[in-house]
């Protein structure tokens, strides 16, 4: 019906167990244009792209190419329909050469069924020449940068003759200079009549490259317009959209002395010159986009990663933290964002998981005092409302929320002054979330300083006294409670620091 | 509700104590099949025969729980043993001989530990290297020849303490030691935690490298004692002795329910595993099963033990999933 | 780190090259005035095998007696591949003679033939590789070693006796030949004798002990222990040496180890046959010398394998004392 529509998505719906990931999605991509999809983490952009690429199948709705309905069961089918996808995290084989990677899985064969290497070399050279790129066919991928490999992926898409190229946050891991190169290439492809779907939430990039913009939120399309009808404020407002609906058990607490102060903390290439402080009874939030470096800062602080320079003061005293053990002894603990990896010991019991960081407490005459241990742990489980059949039950059989409470119980038992919680409510159902908020509030009331890293803005706005925003490894903003708004935070988070 | 709880208890019993059930069944069958099996002498023989491997297996247990293993224990046993024998010949003191065995073995295990903690060598490779080095050192030290005429040294392996064969006394003392370490010490809990999830253990403030070193030192003490008992039992210093014992020890630990994925295992389970192998070997010789067939049966038992281990684990996770689903309904 | 590793590897390479060259160095040092010594490569089955190690030591000792001959020892490490490579290296290094103590006769046959083709004097020993054209051999015949015991056992073992048998690793030339000898020379002639237990104890004392402990449980009476080597016989005897019920039990082995002669002296073990490393070494060096000097073209000899029993044990105790294997 509409002239020049290359790809159309019509009423796509998709559910995962317990979550409606996409709800009646509609949008269209024109021939020879760049269509930007933006939205917060988890808004559904990536899921939709995976459906278009055949990795997931939609529950309802259709995908149309050149206004004809197509069924896409897998990425190979997608490729044959002229769709190529360049993933956010590039999977590649380091030992492969440029020419091998260009033809991987699609090697031309000679009449004896043997891979035709001279043909590959010929095609590679002509392709590189055509696209004006300066690579040697025999260079191994491990000797290239991320942006080089990205460029090769684009080259691969061209070699497949794809008309639709989907790029999922292509600039998240490359330098500013490389971004320029990439954007140039994208424009060139557009001018040759290709349709580009570009996923990003970096505002300046979006406005430089987009012809059309579609905003996603909570699995729905909020709006879709040509770039000229949008401005940055509108896009951000549409991205965050929702009102703060849940009430947070935030209490008014007398804020005291500084318990933690960090000055100029730097780990080159990860984060630079990070300055912040936390006071007694204060909950300090850390906002930012995925990959901005929030978790990395906290890991370095807690002694899990190294840092090159900077100073850490705990209760006014300068300290060096070399390991998690060090940090725990100095009464600073961290609830990791990756519970399965850094939180639980899956095969062991609730009891052992809780007492792990506190074993010295239960030692009498060189022996673990098991009654004392059991009593204390039962007490804590009750206090923290951990739902478990017995404390001898293995932790992996508990729900996510209860596992998180067990880990929190472990840290509370160490009686910390500073508690860092990284994504404390990730993967936890609503009821358990509320209980965790209450526990955090309770801890603040006990004069502990709390650092809360979260990607859920309502949670930060609802719980924190102050929020730092991290962008590209640097602190790009600090907001007091009265300045809190999702728009404000997103503005800092999406700005580009050069 | 009540039947549910009983079912759960039964399932718990089955998964936790199944290895002891196997042991008891094997014991009963053996007693019926051959009249000679069920005699105090025979049972004491079996205990004595398995004592050396069981002591090694206790060392393996603590290492496997911690996510490692020791392929060098047979060779280190021989090295510690021949040093111990020659120390005895020079000093005529069993205490000094025993100390020498322990010292040599602990030294080897400290090297194992350093390779693994400081240089991040995989335990498999590090202890494989030590296996070859220790055997070479034992042969070099003795010029490849057995040392005979070791006099009263044989009391360690052939004598009696409190009316019980001395090797069995050692085995029981070490059983108690490892049980105590695993159950009642910070070290034991740390060992389980590291095997269960090394990164989480580290993030919980456990010094992973120190714990691993300690585990190797404990293993070293056990292997040293086993070395002295072995040489005493065979009445000679044999640099070629105990070849392949590390695998017998691993077998006992695995049959006893120690999981190679780490974080799971008990001292009593290993003891049971060792006895299962001991009973099996004994009854096969008593009933004169063909020697080649014996090897096939032994191998099959190991395969069954491992398959059972994996099956029991998958059942455990499935069980919990079932519970969650039932709740959501 | 990588740098250090490279240096270390380089160092190891140099060391291995040097050690491989010791032979030629000796040659260079030899004064022209004297004859250049003949170079003999002795490829040992495995320095970890106690008899092979004993033999290697004896060969070195014996070699000192020859002014015009030097022997270099190479360890085959119980591996066919290693041993074959060592033979090839010895051919390349143009040794005057190569003595091969095969790990597994058939696996080394082609390489022994190669050595002969290259015009190098080739001697196979313990056990000989049969039918290599142009090669010589010095051996103690394993069949004969077991036979001298089996012959006396025919007389000693009582009617309707119950015996146990301890075997070496299956597939091993000596293990199989000794067992075959017992079958033909004893069991076939004494159908009245009953084997109440037979197990593979892999030459090992500890394994033999375990089996014997179990057999003792199952049998009130064991009249004889028939073992394919002394080590296993000693293991079985370790179990019953203080048990009055088995005071009369006979025990036969092979090898004539220090432990076995002591047991014979104490009346615990019945007999063994000597596979004398000294005699073998003496014969090997003598043969090598005769061949390299061209006195003879081809020699095949078997050293004697005398029976050791209570009557002549003292002379063998003296032998072991001289070697330092028996103290006091």
How would you name the oligomeric state of the polypeptide chains in this document? Answer: heterotrimer
**How many helical stretches of chain A?**
17
- What's the name of the CATH homologous superfamily of the largest domain in chain A? P-loop containing nucleotide triphosphate hydrolases
Which class of chain B in CATH terms?
Mainly Alpha
Q: What percentage of amino acids of chain A are in beta strands?
A: 25-35%
Q: So what's the overall shape of chain A?
A: elongated
Write down the CATH class of the largest domain in chain A: Alpha Beta
State the CATH architecture of chain B: Orthogonal Bundle
* Second-tier CATH architecture of the largest domain in chain A: 3-Layer(aba) Sandwich
Percent of residues in beta strands of chain B: under 5%
CA(first)-CA(last) distance of chain A: 44 Å
Most extensive interface: pair and counts?
B-C, 35 and 36 residues
- What is the typical, i.e. mean, pLDDT of chain A? 86
Query: Element order, helices and strands of chain B?
Result: HHHHHHEEHHHHHHH
Give a short account of the largest sheet of chain A: 6 strands, mixed
Tally the helices of chain B. Answer: 13
Strand order of the largest sheet of chain A: 6-7-8-3-9-10
Percent of residues in helices of chain A: 25-40%
Assign a percent range to the helix content of chain B: over 70%
């Amino acid at each position: 019906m509409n002239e020049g529509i290359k790809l159309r998505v019509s009423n796509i719906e998709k559910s995962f167990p317990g979550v409606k990931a996409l709800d009646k999605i509609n949008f269209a991509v024109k021939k020879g244009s760049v269509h930007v999809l933006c939205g917060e983490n988890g808004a559904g952009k990536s899921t939709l792209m995976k459906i278009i690429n055949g990795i997931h199948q939609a529950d309802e709705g259709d995908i149309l190419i050149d206004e004809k309905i197509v069924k896409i069961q897998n990425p190979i089918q997608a490729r044959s329909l002229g769709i190529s996808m360049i993933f956010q995290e590039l999977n590649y084989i380091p030992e492969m050469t440029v020419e091998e990677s260009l033809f991987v899985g699609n090697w031309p064969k000679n009449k004896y069924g043997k891979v035709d290497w001279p043909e590959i070399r010929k095609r590679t050279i002509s392709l590189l020449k055509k696209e004006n790129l300066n690579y040697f066919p025999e260079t191994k991928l491990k000797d290239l940068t991320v942006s080089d490999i990205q460029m090769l992926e684009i080259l691969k898409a061209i070699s497949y003759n794809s008309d639709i190229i989907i790029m999922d946050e292509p600039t998240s891991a490359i330098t500013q200079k490389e971004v320029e190169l990439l954007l140039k290439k994208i424009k060139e492809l557009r001018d040759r009549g290709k349709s580009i779907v570009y996923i990003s939430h970096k505002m300046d990039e979006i406005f430089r490259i987009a012809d059309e913009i579609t905003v996603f939120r909570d699995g729905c399309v909020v709006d879709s317009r040509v770039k000229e009808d949008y401005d940055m404020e509108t896009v951000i407002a549409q991205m965050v959209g929702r009102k703060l609906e849940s009430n947070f058990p935030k209490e008014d607490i007398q804020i005291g002395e500084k318990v933690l102060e960090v000055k100029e903390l730097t780990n080159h290439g990860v984060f630079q010159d990070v300055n912040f402080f936390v006071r007694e009874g204060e909950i300090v939030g850390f906002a930012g986009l995925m990959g901005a470096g929030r978790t990395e800062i906290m890991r370095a602080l807690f002694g899990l990663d190294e840092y090159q320079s900077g100073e850490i003061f705990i209760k006014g005293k300068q300290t060096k933290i070399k390991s998690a053990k060090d940090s725990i002894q100095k009464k600073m603990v961290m609830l990791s964002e990756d519970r399965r990896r850094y939180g639980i010991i899956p095969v062991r019991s609730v009891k052992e998981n809780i007492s792990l960081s506190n074993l010295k407490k239960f030692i009498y005459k060189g022996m673990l005092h098991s009654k004392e241990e059991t009593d204390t742990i039962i007490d804590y489980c009750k206090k923290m409302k951990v739902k478990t059949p017995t404390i001898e039950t293995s932790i992996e059989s508990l729900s996510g929320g209860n596992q998180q409470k067990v880990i929190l119980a472990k840290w509370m038992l160490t009686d910390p002054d500073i508690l860092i919680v990284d994504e404390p409510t990730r993967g936890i159902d609503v009821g358990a979330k509320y209980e965790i908020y209450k526990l955090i509030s309770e801890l603040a009331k006990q004069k502990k300083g709390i650092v809360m890293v979260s990607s859920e803005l309502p949670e930060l706005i609802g719980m924190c006294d102050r929020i730092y925003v991290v962008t590209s490894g640097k602190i790009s903003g600090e907001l007091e409670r009265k300045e809190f708004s999702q728009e404000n935070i997103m503005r800092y988070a999406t700005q580009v620091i050069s | 509700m009540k039947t549910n709880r009983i079912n759960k208890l039964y399932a718990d019993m089955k998964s936790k104590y199944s290895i002891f059930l196997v042991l008891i069944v094997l014991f009963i069958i053996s007693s019926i099949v051959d009249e000679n099996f069920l005699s105090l002498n025979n049972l004491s023989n079996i205990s004595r025969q398995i004592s050396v491997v069981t002591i090694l297996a206790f060392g393996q247990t603590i290492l496997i729980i911690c996510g490692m293993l020791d392929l060098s224990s047979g060779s280190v046993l021989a090295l510690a043993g021949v040093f111990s024998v020659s120390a005895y010949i020079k000093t005529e003191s069993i205490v000094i001989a025993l100390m020498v065995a322990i010292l040599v073995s602990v030294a080897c295990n400290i090297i194992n530990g350093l390779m693994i903690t400081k240089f991040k060598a995989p335990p498999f490779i590090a202890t494989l290297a030590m296996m070859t080095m220790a055997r070479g050192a034992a042969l070099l030290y003795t010029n490849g020849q057995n040392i005979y005429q070791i006099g009263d040294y044989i009391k360690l392996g052939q004598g009696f303490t409190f009316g019980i064969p001395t090797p069995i006394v050692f085995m029981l003392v070490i059983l108690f030691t490892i049980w105590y370490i695993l159950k009642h010490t910070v070290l034991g809990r740390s060992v389980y935690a590291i095997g269960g999830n090394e990164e989480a253990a580290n993030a919980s403030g456990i010094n992973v490298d120190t714990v691993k070193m300690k585990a190797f030192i404990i293993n070293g003490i056990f292997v040293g004692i086993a070395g002295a008992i072995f040489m005493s039992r065979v009445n000679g210093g044999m640099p070629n002795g105990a070849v392949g014992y590390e695998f017998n020890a691993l077998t006992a630990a695995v049959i006893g329910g120690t999981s190679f994925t780490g974080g799971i295992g008990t001292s009593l389970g290993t003891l049971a595993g060792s006895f299962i192998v001991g009973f099996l070997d004994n009854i096969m010789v008593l009933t004169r099963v063909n020697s080649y067939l014996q090897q096939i049966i032994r191998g099959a038992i190991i395969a069954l033990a491992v398959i059972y281990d994996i099956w029991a684990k998958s059942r455990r996770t499935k069980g919990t999933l079932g519970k969650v689903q039932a709740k959501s309904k | 780190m990588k740098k250090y590793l490279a240096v270390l590897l380089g160092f190891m390479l140099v060391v291995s090259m040097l050690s491989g060259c010791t032979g030629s160095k000796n040659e260079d040092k030899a004064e022209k005035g004297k004859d250049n010594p003949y170079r003999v490569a002795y490829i040992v089955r495995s320095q970890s095998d106690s008899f092979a190690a004993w033999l290697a030591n004896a060969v070195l000792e014996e070699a000192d007696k020859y002014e015009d001959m030097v022997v270099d020892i190479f360890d085959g490490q119980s591996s066919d591949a290693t041993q074959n490579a060592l033979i090839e290296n010895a051919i390349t290094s143009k040794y005057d003679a190569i003595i091969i103590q095969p790990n597994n006769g058939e696996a080394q046959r082609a390489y022994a033939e190669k050595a002969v083709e290259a015009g190098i004097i080739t001697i196979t020993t313990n056990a000989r590789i049969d039918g290599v054209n142009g090669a010589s051999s010095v051996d103690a015949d394993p069949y004969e070693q077991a036979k001298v015991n089996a012959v006396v056992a025919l007389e000693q073992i009582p009617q309707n006796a119950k015996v146990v048998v301890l075997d070496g690793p299956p597939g091993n030339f000596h293990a199989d030949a000794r067992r075959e000898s017992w079958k033909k020379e004893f069991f076939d002639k004494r159908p009245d004798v009953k084997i109440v237990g037979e197990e593979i104890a892999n030459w090992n004392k500890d394994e033999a002990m375990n089996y014997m402990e179990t057999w003792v449980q199952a049998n009130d009476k064991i009249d004889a222990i028939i073992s394919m080597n002394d080590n296993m016989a000693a293991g079985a005897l370790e179990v019953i040496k203080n048990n009055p019920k088995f005071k009369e039990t006979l025990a036969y082995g092979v090898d004539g180890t220090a432990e076995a002669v002591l047991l014979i002296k104490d009346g615990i073990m019945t007999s063994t046959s000597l596979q004398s490393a000294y005699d073998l070494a003496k014969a090997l060096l003598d043969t090598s010398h005769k061949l390299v000097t061209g006195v003879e073209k081809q020699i095949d000899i078997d050293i004697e394998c005398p029976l050791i029993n209570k009557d002549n044990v003292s002379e063998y105790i003296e032998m072991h004392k001289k070697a330092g294997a028996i103290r006091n």
